[in-house]
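Record PPM-type phosphatase domain-containing protein, 712 aa.
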Amino acid sequence: MSKRMVDLREFFVEGGDNKKSHVLLQITEPANSYEQENKGYFFALAEINGGDDEQVQLLQQMIDDIETGYYETKDTDEKDAFELTLEYINRRGHLFLNKRSGDFNCVIGTINRDKISFSYHGKPLIKVIFAKRDKYELYNVLENEDESSGQLFSAIMQGEIKENDFFQIATPHVSDHISDRQLINTLSARSSRQSSEYIQKILSSLRDGLSYGGIIISIQPKNKRVKPLSKELDEEETKEIIEEKPKPAVHADPPKKAESVETNYRPREEKEYDSVFNMILVNLGRSLVLLLTTLFKLLKNFFVLIGKAILGLFILATNKGGQRAMVIQSFNDFIASKKQYIKNLPIISKILFLLTLLLAVIFAGSIIYLNITKSIRQQQQDYINQTQAIEDKKTAAEASMIYGDDKKAFDLLKEAQSMIDSLPMKNQAQEERKKELMSGITENLKILQKLNTVTTEIIADFSADQASAQTEKLARINDMIIAYGPNDLFVYKYDMNTNVIEKKDHQTIPNLFKSNTPKEQDKVVFLTKENGIAVYSPESGVISSKEIFNAENSVLSDIFVYSQKLYAVDTANNEIYRHNPTQLGYDKGSAWLKTDTDIHDAVSLAIDGDLFLLKSDGQILKFVSGYQQEFTIAGLDPKLENPTEIWTYNNLKYLYILEPTHKRVVVLDKNGQMLQQYTSDSWQNPTGMIVDEENKVIYILDNNKIHRFGTQ
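=>
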């Protein structure tokens, strides 16, 4: 496909009264092959009606800044150079808008090959003339657009210009003299150059004191001479074009001749610009020199004054050389001279002095008031922009959720949440607005986090019968749930069939803090704080001590019985030991790990054939036959923080983790993908967990109460 060339033609008429109407028109060519390939042309058209010279200068400077910024800024993955430049200009836009004294209309844009991007302010004319069924039609781009406000350029429009179509921008008053039909007829019968010359001729003859300007953009195939379009017109339309005459002029006097027009079509000079960093360094250096000079003068005068004061005080204190009286007299003379000076002033001078002082106070107060008002308005506008940006991210996240892009939605919601955290809360309205925004973000995050707030049923309250109960953990054997804690000398047995609670003393075997029930459901094995082992027998209902031979200086953090063998996590020796059963308990055991893995902070383990080890930092380590395997938690937010318990078995599908910090139960598949999270408003500090996956029920111990809830 051959590259197509851009054809830009301008028409410009300068009026006789620049204060009544002033037009700035600028077209910039790419300066080199890189800009030709990646940037293309820059164009700008602006009209100020009833403005002043300062506003015109500010507008010209703004256009130059946009041009320079566009050509010197590189595109990013998310935004192109034009959008980045306009965002920067919008942040400074209040400088121009606050100075604005007249009506202001403007179009800024770029075109690279057939791709056009533009933005506007006010009500400029932006029209597209295109061929349809061998006939030209006109589309007014801004016909249904609201007038922009608050920002200089509130939106960017983009599109593509096809061969032999036309894109015209013009100042609003052009439409008073060139109708849409007249424009279509002109472009149909003439080339772009001839059309722009013809329109300029019509506008030049008006002599009404107004300035007019516009640009006609079309696309021509590369290496192909631009020709007038060969669209045939009917006889009536041809006659109309031939007989078109300019409207009569408002004034009979000839217009004043303009000295020069500097804002029209011009090539972009390829020259070296100082980098932004160098400019910052230069300005910083100048400011630093000025600051240091001023500071030096102030310090010099201050120290001279302090020196004189110290010298005077020294003489007053010591009367050195008998000069005390002279110093006192000098001070009195100074005060007296100032009093006499004021006294001798004429009445009119005193009045003028007081008036000057009063006016100075009023002037200073006015400046302070205006600056405060300006600052408040800017803060209000910034607040509106911030909240709108949050709403936009929320909307984009909801759209991503609809299309199944949960990761993008999650990132957008997190960005919005961070922006909400930085919102000010200076009044009740802002506090309410912040709560409203945070509520919307939180609800969407809960959906992505799959966080289910469940309503639980309290099936047992051990503190009701035993006020001193300090239960922390749960164990289950058959239809019996046992609650216990290292600081409680009793265990509490809850019968799930009869709902009866039975209390049992175990003072001879204190400090029970971990337990595990084998798959055979023939016993519950307890671990004590002293690294001892105790066994509860469902037949006798008694807890009895058993022997286990641990490694020297061992500290056991958890145990698990699998295939009649007891696995114990020894954090002090950084090892997992496997113990075989004996008649009196368990043997010394053997080291099971075959890889060098740090498990000093391991808190819980579960085995389903593979071994899953939970660490206090939220990591889950997976081992197969003693060798560590790769295992990563995916899709979980927030990350695990100080979890206390992990549970699974070979007949279970999922991993279950209890985390008191965020008061939740996390469900993962055995590849690490997060499936569900459960929390409850009634939980305060959940410490124990029993999972009945077959019946889809989870039991949670929280403050001596057993909560029961169903899972999905």
